[in-house]
Amino acid sequence: MSATAPAEAQVPDSTRRSDQLRRALEGVIGVPATEGNHVEISRNGNEIFPAMLQDIRGAGRTIDLLTFVYWKGEIGERFAEALAERAREGVRVRVLLDGWGAHAIETSCVAMMRAAGVQVRWFRPLSRFQLHKANHRTHRKVLIVDEEVGFTGGVGIADEWNGDARNEHEWRDTHFRVRGPAVDGLLAAFLDNWLETDDVLFEPDVDRFPDQPQGGSTVVQSVRGASETGWSDISTLFLMLLQLAQERVRITTAYFVPDTQLNDRICAAAERGVDVQILLPGPHIDKRFVQLAGESSFERLLDCGVKIWQFQPSMLHAKVMTVDGVLANIGSANLNARSTELDEEVNLVAFDAEVVRVLDAQFDEDLTRSEAIVAGRWEDRSVRRRVVERAAGLFRHEM
Predict the structure, then answer these.
(1) Counting C-beta atoms within 10 Å of the first and last residue's C-beta, which end of the chain has fewer, N or C?
(2) Radius of gyration, alpha carbons of the chain
């Protein structure tokens, strides 16, 4: 017997499983995970916005903000004021707004930031000269402060996310705050899009590219999805997680319009005994046509043994997946074609049983305010409803 056998025998099953998942994802996606990260989970705007604003107001050197949504309202004004204040104090502030998703921003907010010295850029502004890019957006949500703290998840800069998901006016969402080497992955996602709008890659007297502290306990892999023809790393990530799962997969997503291959992987997981649970928006979804397109796949999924719920109190906008109690996937990507094929996305995969425990507990709490889709009742829906679902499903590759 080898001398290492006793030590190997003491490795917890969860650690071995986490290591297996890590190596499989690293091997297929080709992006190494990093160790020593510290991850904080924030739920809903009443936790997420204060954390982001606190770090912005404490910035001493740099702030980089990339977002798809930046809409009119009090939250947008608060962010603009905080960013402008730091720019006036000499902090290099860069703000990158998607040309479609953020078109509703107050012009006064843009003017305020620019007057203070904030570098505001538009990603693929809508123009007749760029029609070939019009359907390919950046859906990433990234904030990096002083190259040391990073945020990502599902939240946009808008009043819709404020509050605690108590009613239809307060959207439900989840965000990560990260310290450690994984921050570099978020910065890379920002720069990847920034370079399409500005020639300056970095400023030697400002950007330090510091060695990141490794005082945390979470292993994190950063996965970027690019708008391209064919499969992106985000789509590969989803397919791999579904194939690798052995015990349980829990999916929370705002826009669920899986193509045939994703549907096949979901059903295959359920049919081999994996407990597949999917939580989706309910009556307060902001894009009903997208919801109808996704519902066209419910009958097959239910027949395969997949469990589906719809969140009732408000719009559910979170994008979270947990696997086998040891892996958590969170970021900007939904399970739809926009995220897997058309848009720029970024997700973080955390290999940490404690992070998963917290997210699974939140999933359980959300289920108490959700309604299950029951196979028998679902089959009794009207012919008209079925026709509308199928019609919407024809456009799934644009959603």
Answers:
(1) N
(2) 21
Is 307 an active-site residue? no
Say whether 133 is catalytic. Answer: no
Helix (H) and strand (E) counts in the chain: 14, 15
Catalytic-residue membership of 233: no
Q: Catalytic pick from 19, 146, 159, 192?
A: 146
CATH class of the domain at 12-398: alpha beta
> Do the Cβ atoms of 267 and 306 come closer than 8 Å?
yes
Catalytic residue among 317, 343, 352, 366: 317
- Residue 116's CB: how many other CB atoms inside 10 A? 17
Question: What are the boundaries of each domain within the chain?
Answer: 12-398
Active-site pick, 64, 98, 136, 141: 141
Torsion sign over Cα 273, 277, 278, 284: positive
- As beta bridge partners, residue 349 has 221, 329
How many Cβ atoms are within 10 Å of 156's Cβ, its own excluded? Answer: 22
Catalytic entry in 98, 136, 139, 352: 139
> Is residue 263 within 8 Å of residue 295, measured between CB atoms?
no
Annotated catalytic, 287? no
- In this predicted model, what pLDDT tens digit does every residue of 200-240 receive, in sequence order? 989 999 999 999 999 999 999 999 987 655 568 999 999 99
Cβ atoms 174, 43 nearer than 8 A: yes
Which of the following is catalytic: 173, 233, 319, 366?
319
Catalytic-role residue among 233, 324, 343, 360: 324
Full-model pTM: 0.92
Task: Give yes or no: 139 in active site.
Answer: yes
Q: Residue 173 in contact with residue 48, Cβ under 8 Å?
A: yes
Fill in the amino acid letter for 348: L
